[in-house]
Specification:
single chain; mainly alpha; Recoverin, domain 1; two-stranded antiparallel ribbon; 5 helices; 54% helix; binds calcium ion
Length: 110
Amino acid sequence: MQMLDEDGDGRASRAEHADKAGQMFARMDADRDGKVTADEMDVVLRSLYRDDRRAAAAAIAPVDSNHDGVLSSEEHATATGVEFGRMDADRDDFLTMAELESASAASAAR
Ligand SMILES: [Ca+2]
Ligand SMILES: [Ca+2]
Ligand SMILES: [Ca+2]
């Protein structure tokens, strides 16, 4: 949450969320061609979730709208917006700690 909440008001706006997602995209895009391949994502996921074998290809597939196996910045931005909408339970365009917690509980339950 601290990571998302730039202005420290205890909630993350849609803009803050998109901003962090953009930084994440830039971090994953090692060769800076504006696209994240499964290999590029793998490197970052491995550094973030050491004991958690998250498959990059499986993460890309649901948001890869043109099915080329590569995540473009547009596809990533679209997925980010969808993700925000899913977590923003009361649709006020802000994520509170409670909303983030229930979203991560829901994804852990899956
Ligand atoms: Ca790239
Ligand atoms: Ca794609
Ligand atoms: Ca909200």
